[in-house]
Amino acid sequence: MRLLFLSKALACVAVLSAALLPAAAGAQTTDRALQKKQMAEVVDTKKFKKPGPYTIGVAAGYMSNSWVVFCLQHIRYEASLHKDVKDVIVTDAAFNPSKQVADIEDLVAKNVSLIIYWPVDEKAIQPALEKAVAKGIPTVNAGGGFSYSAGTVSNAFIDQWALGEEGARHFVKDLGGKGKIFAMLPIAGTTAAVDQLAALKTVLKDHPNVELLSAEYGDWNRAKAKQISENLLQRYPKIDGVFSPAGQMSMGVAEAFEDAGRMKGLTMSPGDEYNGWMKWVVKNQKGGAVTFPTRAGQEATKLGLKILAGEPVPRGLVIPSEYIAPKDAAKFAEMNKPDDWWASKLPEQFKPK
Amino acid sequence: MSPLAASPWSSAGELLSRWAILCVLAVLYLVAIALSDAFLEPVYVGNILRQAAPVGIAAIGTTLVMILGCIDLSIGAIISFSAVLCAVLMAGDARNVPLAVAVTVAVGAAFGAVNGLLVVFNRSSSFILTLGTALAIYGLTQIFSGGTARGMVAPDFREFFNHRLGDVLPVLALSLLLLAAAVEILLRTTRFGRQIYLIGSNREAARLSGLPVAAVTFACYVISGAFAALGGIAVLARSGVSSTFTGRGFEFDALAAIVLGGTLFSGGRGTVVGTVAGTLVLFIAFNLVNILGFNYNLQLVLKGAIIVVASAAYARLGRDR
Amino acid sequence: MALAAASVPALQSLAHRAGIYGLLAVVLAAALLFVPGFASPTNLANVVTQSAALGLVAIGQTFVIAGGLIDLSVGQLLGLSVVLSCAITDGRSELLLPVLMAMVALGAAVGVAHGALVNRFRIEPLILTFGTLSILQGAIFAYTDQSVGRAPVELVWLANGRLLGLPVAGLVLLGFAAFAHLLLRHTRFGLRLLATGGDAESARRAGVDVARVRLLAFVLSGVGATLAGLLVAGRLGTGYPNAGQGFELDAIVAAVLGGTSLAGGRGTIAGTVAAVILLGVISNVLNLLEVSAFVQTFAKGLIVVTAIVATGARTGRGPLAATRLPAAGPDAG
Predict the structure, then answer these.
(1) How far is residue B241 from each of residues A222, A246, B81, B87, B261, measured CA to CA in Å?
(2) CB-based contact A101 C120, cutoff 8 Å
């Protein structure tokens, strides 16, 4: 009797999933032309104009990686340069979108003048952001994605696609235009992962002799990237190169290859300016970097203050990435600082402790 | 529940419980070999042992707590904190390593002591208490690290632990096996070990017989904390850097390993050998799925399925009541 | 003299019973008096809205824990509910009712599966539901790794809206809590559940169908999770795959703080709801006081430990001693 019940229940679940699997959402890449147009739109900010003193609210989707910590320090630094900013309040959603919604509500309740944020999930917080905008509190997105929606007034961001493309071009050149590679990407589904992979594939279209064996997701986690690489080394006897735009993961990948004794002849793509990776590049003279500047926070703050002054701002402000060749890496690596660190022009008292 | 026996090893049920997980491990290994001959390569097996080391080492200490009939959910947090602390103390200099390791283990033991005090003096649930201390310790880790992975691992530290003895067995894997052997011997041959089993079997009777229940409980939590700290150092040795969420989820993986290994929640039964075997079951399964090229998410599904199936199989094999 | 001696245990028992309610009252009073911005009606409504989903999950968990079991899978089940409801309806209101029924069915089905596995194979609920947690999490992410679909406006209203000035989510929570309270305290099922949780062997001998009671407890937990998922879907507006992370542990903390013993045999819905509100208030207060996010985690841990010690939530000798399942008898599945 119970077994019958059980099998009926399982059948229901099975049918449900079978019906839905075809509807599985595929990752959508950014429409570049459309995004360029949207970025250039000028926002009329007169309705946000207010006199100081200002309180800046930072709704952080997460604080648990060094990039966002540096980004926040850039925000604080910029805030300190303006006499009319009296306070910076920070909330941390710890990767929980429901909490980020609650955090934004709480910041609105505290009557902050401006909200700078980086999302756990962009869509999930839109309703909360729209409520803030409706109350006259401008919102600025800082970081790795462009958001064109009613809840976001402006963006200070790094173009993941351009970053991926520049990295891929240098990578393919270093490879000599042929070989078997795999891609190590950040958290699946994020703009970073989706756009970087799309950029790589676009570049690879022009180089048919380069074969993409697999796209893996290391979640910006060095140990995880290492573990995945170890398994790939086991599965594929020949790997000529690895496309990994995030330096943190590149380190894990490199370690796996070193441990397996297959470092020789391996081409690493440029990573980013993550300090640990920069130190590796200095030592091994391979790879290089395409930067992912943490001063996005500073630019976001500047945008926010302009909005509060009623000045027009573009919908999207790109913080350009620059390419660092291996031979120039020594200028950027800080050898006596921890791996989990980012090169910046922050004055000493604003650097994380 | 089994009465206070002079030796916990005499019952046939105990022997059967111990064999059960080893059977499951053997079967799984054979399946793995059938599906991919990578598992025949000693280097690969050494790799798996090395991957399993952090969870395995932490689980060894917590096994004692579970034989007592309690639980320790704070080990993931202690792993995170220890990794950060050890890296900071090392500050990139190999000469600091012994001190860094010693202080980190001491701090882990101290956290364990706090857990032990709370559980002993407040006859409350160790589940919820260690859940609370886990939160507090995670918070401390974040405050201490300021969100970045502070500290620098000394250059040769990682190399030492990843060095393969005889080109096969990484030192870290050997550490796991040695620590496991040491604690298993402790459990079997010392009076302390016997007391743990007796108290786990029947706390009230043990107390009435005059056994130092509070002291033993406290000691087991201290050991659990110290081993969690060792697990954190093992994470550092494996990956060379700490991150603020290094240990997240480890407590449940360790719990799964311990339970798969034959330790009952009600206490009184369990072995470290079983725990290590349980850890290996989890990691072989994980690697098997990875190496077969499945979508990462299906790995989670399979991991869960293996936990369910293995514990059902184990329940069939092991229970003798 | 005798009167004093008699009143001490009475006072202690009062303190135990006042436990979570007293704590909530004290914290509320302190917040209303000392925390700027707390007392505003908008903020108070926010707190209730933010707590509603956890409340539903915690109520479901209360049944399971009172029955001597535990259910770690509820967080991921909630996440699955969020994703499915948004993906299937994709904002279309006419699909809401069928989806609602499907989610209830889903929660029940998962509960049945858990109950059957526990009854037939005697797997420890803690380890079983940890396994199903992994399975569900993998299933969600295999289906999608980014947000899918949209929540229909009715769900959004349910999660965020106001009815006669009161937050609708709060009314949903109240309704569910009332139903649950009646179920636990005033039906034979509730009595049987508490008996099973207290001592399954004795309950079985007294003629309770222990297996069925356990099954129903898991079903309630599953349905609580999927219904909570609908609220979360309304709150986020979209099907975020990782939406359920952490709900299971928060729910367990809430149930235990509220006075439901992990050893089984005792349970209180009102206590659970009070604990959920307490946790919501604390989170809100810490945000309003601009306590650093890092310190908040630490504070939350301290508060849980202190509250447990202070309210003297009892459990007997071990955390999950009662999950020890009786030997297979002729009536076991």
Answers:
(1) 8, 16, 12, 7, 30
(2) no
Closest CA–CA distance from residue B165 to any residue of chain C (Å): 35
Structure tokens at C304: 């849980």
In this complex, the chains that touch B, judged by 3 or more CB pairs closer than 8 A, are A, C
Measure the CA–CA gap between C2 and B317, rounded to whole angstroms: 57
In sequence order, what are the residues at sequence separation of 6 or more whose Cβ sits closer than 8 angstroms to the Cβ of residue A237? none
Euclidean distance between CA atoms A197 and A191, whole angstroms: 10
What's the pLDDT score for residue A144?
73
In this structure, what token pair is assigned to residue C181?
Answer: 């309270």
CA distances from C3 to A64, B132, C6, C10 (A): 57, 38, 5, 10
What is the rounded CA–CA span in Å between residue A124 and residue C243?
10
Cα gap C255→C49, rounded to integer Å: 19
Number of A:C CB contacts under 8 A?
129
Chain B nearest-CA distance from C324, in A, is 6
Cα distances (Å, whole numbers) of residue A7 to B83, C136, C137: 46, 18, 22
Nearest CA in chain A to B138: A64
The residue of chain A with its CA nearest to that of C143 is: A24
Backbone angles phi, psi at A330, to 5 degrees: -60, -25
Q: pLDDT-based confidence at B252, cuts 50/70/90?
A: confident
Going by C-alpha positions, the residue among B39, B105, B41 that lies closest to residue B78 is B105
Cα–Cα distances (Å) from C186 to B120, C46, C181, in that order, read 36, 32, 8
Cα distances (Å, whole numbers) of residue B70 to B75, B127, B175, B200, B259: 14, 8, 26, 8, 13
What is the C-alpha to C-alpha distance for residues B316 and C306, in angstroms, rounded to an integer?
41
Q: How far apart are the first and last CA of chain A?
A: 64
**Tens of pLDDT, residues B166-218:** 767 788 888 899 999 999 999 999 999 999 999 998 888 888 999 899 999 99
Q: Which DSSP string do the residues of C149-189 spell out, in sequence order?
A: S---HHHHHHHH-EETTEEHHHHHHHHHHHHHHHHHHHSHH
As for the ipTM of the complex, it is 0.79
Of residues A168, A124, A167, the one with CA closest to residue A147: A124
Q: What is the pLDDT of residues B178-190, one digit of tens each?
A: 999 999 999 999 9
pTM of the model: 0.81
Question: How large is the angle between the packed helices A122-134 and A97-109, nearest 10 degrees?
Answer: 10
Q: Around Cβ C64, how many Cβ atoms within 10 Å?
A: 32
Q: Which residues of A touch C238 (CB under 8 A)?
A: 121, 123-124
Mutation site for A-interface testing, chosen from B164, B241, B244 by largest number of A Cβ within 10 Å: B241
Q: Whole-angstrom Cα distance, residue C326 to residue C217?
A: 17
User: What domains can you pick out in chain A, each with its CATH number?
Assistant: 39-158+294-321 (3.40.50.2300), 160-290 (3.40.50.2300)
Question: DSSP string spanning C88-115?
Answer: HHTT-GGGHHHHHHHHHHHHHHHHHHHH
